[in-house]
Structure formats: structure tokens, C-alpha cells
Amino acid sequence: MGAKASIAKTLAANPGFSGKRREAPRARPADLLAVDLLAWYDRHRRNLPWRAPRGERADPYRVWLSEIMLQQTTVATVGPYFKRFLARYPNLRSLAEAPLDDVLAAWAGLGYYSRARNLHACARAVVERHGGNFPRSEAELASLPGIGPYTAAAIACIAFNEKTVPVDGNVERVLARLHRVAHELPRAKPELRELARELAEDVGIASRFGDFAQALMDLGATICRPRQPRCMICPWQAACLAKAQGDQESFPKKSAKREGNLRRGAAFVVSRRDGAVLVRKRQEKGLLGGMVEVPGSEWSADFNEAAALAFAPRVRGESGLAWRRLQGEVGHVFTHFPLELIVFVASIGLGARAPRGCRFLAPAEIARAAVPTLMIKVLAHAGVLPRRAL
DNA sequence: TATACGTGGCG
DNA sequence: TCGCCAAGTAT
User: pLDDT, tens digit, for every residue of A162-183?
Assistant: First the structure.
């Protein structure tokens, strides 16, 4: 199916869409749309840390690392993490040989920690299965840990110039507006993927698949933004069906997602006289998997504050800790639920021994350990830390 | 197909 | 202040 046919299908799926609108948008052949975008990209190309100099092929290791970091994460947030990570692990082999805990520590604060665990597993898999070189086909890439359909396509076209278009949130938004896609996400995903596949065909004459993918994502990030899109300077403004209708901000349509219930719990900060804090490691899988935390209760909607001290850690060599409940709470919002933690603090002497499964972490070590932002907030609330040092 | 999975920025 | 959103994947 050609691009024109899909436009007709889009129009057919929009009963309220006036037939008069068919003529104004998309006055030019589809291949020129791709050419227009590449020309725009050549003029407005952003210099990002993982991007190769113009005309040069990007390093697959850097492309992969950046794409994993950029999953659900903004360019501004990723920048500093990417540079630090690359300085510490300059190539695939150095990453594959590193202990997982060190990798988690380098990832601390970025969120979605399964990405770091899969990153590490992927590095080892590429060394074992591919001799240390990333495969170039989308299918082989997608079989690696942490690499799904989007990332496989992104690496394939950006690092190897394979003929494919990765479809991320940016591309979905651009295409949903360009074609005024009526269906809601995520149901519209197959339709949007098909539109993206047609675009890959359009790029054929230029054979710059990596540039085209990055151009499309840049267009979504800087021009076709979720709110207040800058249509007046968009290279595709003349072809955009939503722009013609004036309702571009209402695309893509999305199904309403329900919000999670508030969960509450208690955290216990034990400070040793030399400043060290009692911590433990969370289980490998699930929320904040493998990350460092202070001891605490379960987090639940029906948390009973009066019984909170039952969860307090018992420190060997101490006859009983004098717990002090700090005023206020530590609030944190996860993707699927908000959390409020009350914090208890206690001080102990140098002779104390950590309970089974726990250890004491010196202040200087906290910055180098795998401590998630939630726990940074708890430690800051307890007065143990000023804030994360970037 | 739906849900779990972090965090920070912005209007 | 608060809801939305950002270059998704695994199960």
C-alpha cells in the first residue's frame, strides 16, 4: 500500500473529516516529504554527545548505550549520564567485564533500573554470542536483552544504515498528526508502524536511513512537540492534515490511564557515630531491583503508622535503639503509584554490628553506590545527605 | 492486551 | 500545585 492509499484510508476513518480538506494537504509526492525532512535536518542538526560527526557512521556501542538511556528519558537528563558512563566504560568489553553493582551505581538516579541490568546482560551476550560486535540485523538485535522493536530499529539504521524507521513516541506523534490518525494509542500502533514503514520506502532515493530516523525524532522533539507545536517553521506544515484542521494538539489520541493509589510506609535511618548509614540491597527483580535502600516497612495503601516500629532493624551490640520520628514525610511518585514515607532516625556507637543482610555505608560511598533517588530523598530528609552530587 | 517499571521538567 | 510527558521493554 502506498502513502496515498493510507491517506485515503485515514480520511475514510474520519467521518467528520470534510472532503474539501483532501486537496490542500499533501500536495507533493511522498518522496519529497522525506527529502524535505532530510534538508531540514541538514540545516538544524543538533550536536548530541552520542551523534557521529556529519557524514560519519556512528559507533554501535554509543548508539546502543544512548538509545537504552533515552528510553522514556529526556535528552537533557541523559546527557551528563551518557558522558560519565562512557568515561567509565569506554567500550563494550569494559562494560561486559564490570560487576553489575558498579553498573547499577553508574545508573543510579536515571530510573527504570531493569535497563541497567539488561544493559549489562546485553554487553555480555554480545561478547559471548557475537564476539564483541553488535549484529547489524534488526531481528538479531531484538533478540538481545533490553532491546525491543524500537531500539533494534534505531541501532540498525543509525549505526548500520539499515532500511528501517524506529517508531518512538516522537514518531507516533508526528505521524498521528500528519495523517490525523483517529484511533487511540496504543491501539493505533500497528497503523502508525505501517505509516513509518512507508516512509522508509520514501527515503530510498537518499539512502540515508539513519539520518532520516534521527531527523524524524528531532522533528518530534523540537517542532512537533506534544504541546504548542511550532507548525509555522515545520518542513511538513503543508502536508499535515491536523495542521490543516487546526487541531494538531489533540493528536495522538490516547486512552485514559488510571492512576495508582497512594501507598505509605516507614523508612529507618541508623546513623553510626562516624557518619556511616545502615543499608541493605533490594531483591534483584521488581521495583528498584538490585538497588540500595535503608531498612523499611512494606509500602501499602493501608499502612498502619502506629505499628511502624515493628519493622525497625535490630542492631547487634545495642540494647535497643532510641528511635525518633522525624516530622513530615518523604513524597515520591512512581509511574504507577505515589508514595509517602515517614522516617525514623536513631544514632549508634562505633561498636554496633549490622544485622544480617545489611551493611554500613560511609557518606563518601553513598555517592558511588547504587542509591536510587527515593533513598537520596530519605537520607536528605534525615539530614545525612545534602543532596545528590552531580 | 494490560500492567510494572523512575525520574525530572514544564505550563 | 499537579498532571502530563520523555528516543520502551518485559512479562
Answer: 999 999 999 999 999 999 999 9
CATH number at residue A275: 3.90.79.10
Among A55, A78, A40, which Cα is nearest to A215's? A40
pLDDT in tens, A273-287: 999 999 999 999 999
Report if residue A256 sits inside a domain. no
Task: Compute the radius of gyration of chain A from its Cα atoms.
Answer: 25
A283 touches strand B (CB under 7 A): no
Nearest nt to the A168 alpha carbon by C1'? C7
- Closest CA to the C1' of B5: that residue is A112
Overall number of domains in chain A: 2
Regarding whether A66 and A207 lie in a shared domain, the answer is yes
- Active-site amino acid positions of A: 67
Same domain, A58 and A196: yes
Q: Decide if A226 is inside a domain.
A: yes
Q: Chain B positions under 7 Å from a protein CB?
A: 1-9, 11
Query: Measured CA to C1', what is the nucleotide nearest A220?
Result: C7
| DSSP-assigned letter for residue A295 | -
CB within 7 A of nucleic chain C: A 48, 66-67, 70-75, 112, 114, 118, 145-152, 154, 168-170, 173, 214, 217-218, 220-221, 225-227, 254, 259, 333, 335
Where is the domain boundary, A250, A275, A303? A250
pLDDT band for position A201 (50/70/90)? confident
> What's the CA A133/C1' C3 distance, rounded, in angstroms?
43
Give residue A25's pLDDT.
42
Q: Whole domain around residue A174: which residue ranges?
A: 3-250
- A162-184 burial: b if 16+ Cβ within 10 Å, else e: bebbbbbebbbbbbbbbbbbbbe
Shared-domain flag, residues A196 and A318 = no
Q: Reduce the DSSP state of residue A48 to 3 states and report it.
A: coil
The predicted model gives A282-311 an average pLDDT of 94
A155 and A133 part of one domain: yes
Question: Do A41 and A179 belong together in one domain?
Answer: yes
Phi-psi map region of A112: left, alpha, beta (phi>0 left; psi -120 to 50 alpha): left
